[in-house]
Fold:
Amino acid sequence: EVQLVESGGGLVQPGGSLRLSCAAFGFTFSISVMSWARQAPGKGLEWVSTIYSIGSTYYADSVKGRFTISRDNAKKRVYLQMNSLKPEDTAVYYCTIGRDGPPRGQGTQVTVSS
Structure:
């Protein structure tokens, strides 16, 4: 069974940092394109970042220069380092398979507020 388990969210002040983690189960992680997406209150799902199996990375303009996606194929995990967080980054964050895959887990809540 394919499973994605996100963790690492929390409450942080503007300008702060968080590192999200996603554990993958039930598919061949090492060859899979992995992404992070987010859903803010009252809004649709927004693509944030993608990493390919060979390590190429892509970012939404809204997070470019502040967020870094990475992966550890041995541990079957994908990460999202988030720096210089802004209130508009507040959302539930999901990791997904592929560029536009649907969320499969519960996500992890990130709240940026003073």
Observations:
- The beta strands are 3-7, 10-12, 18-25, 34-39, 45-51, 57-59, 67-72, 77-82, 91-97, 108-112.
